Amino acid sequence: MPVSRAFNVDRIAADIRELIDHVITGEADWPDVARSFGERVPGSFVAMIGQSENRPTLNHMSTYNLDPDFGRSFADYYAQINPWDRVWASMKPMDILITEDTAPARQFSNSPFYEDWLKPLGRFDAGAGLQIRHGGSERIYLSVHYDPDAHDAYGPALNEIYRGIRGHLDRSALLAKKLAGSHETALSQAALSGHGGDCAVVIDQDMRIMDCNGSAQTALSVGAVLSSFSGRLRIGRTADTAALRQMVSVLGGGGALDSTRRFIQFEDRSYLARLFVLPPVPMSFASMFAARRLFLVLVRDLTAVNDGLSDKEFSAAFGLTAAEWAMCEILVAGGTIERAAELLGIARDTARQRLKSIFRKTDTNRQAQLVALLIRAHC
What we know:
- Strand 6 and strand 7 form a beta hairpin.
- By secondary structure, this protein is of the alpha+beta class.
- The N and C termini lie far apart (87 Å).
């Protein structure tokens, strides 16, 4: 019986194309595609992978009929030593790989990937895959692994199915990147609005400047507290830029920080810089590509004439509690830590711990430095 009749490859390809469209519109996700594909190829396991060159982790991985422990170990380690990567690298975008015909698993039988990962899975040595490349470093793989004894039927059928979906997957990937770009532009413009005289700059995880408001444009043009080098934001002194870069790195990696504010003394002026993480692109298709997190940097000139911070604004800017602000008021009036404890009705140790919290939030480390910041902020 012809392969196309045994598998109805046209119907399968049409169903997969429709599911890919639904992923773009948010009506389906990649696990749905993997499951639909796998159900049509009995006894197989399917993996859909988004990967970027020179990136230690996968952007995305959806599987069907693959033990979750093996899926995690692949994503965490074995994806980086997959011997078929060298085969894929020698092939063109949208090429189809039928391993039994081109690069059978037996030629990698002595590799850790085969011995420690693929072989323990069972009889899945045969495989077929489709590779989509975008932007030079972004790759999408749709692979199916199956019993070599089924290759005579599965190999040709999968080749035809891949031919029926590869153009659609490629065009859909391009559309998804364009939609993601449009979303980033709209998100940046929304983030930059409504900040008055503050300098507002949207940057990516590599500190590249994506957009900025008029105040920031003026500051960047004169190269004062804000400047750029090779399109990347610099702020204040070298140490200030390094601190901002560290905050971006931690937050971009999903970590948490006690404070995303930094007090900056530059030339004869004082500034408050604040960092905010913008929401990610809400698209299922975009998960295949390396996530580009965007950040909003706000910089306020604390010594601008008639632009001092109110008590409420100062507390909000540095994340101070009402109790911490009450202590600041006593200190700026010349009170000691002991006097603050007495007036607030708290123990001295409690007052000291509260002061340490204020130091941490305001990026100061001495009482005199904190008082100077309070005075400058209210000029």
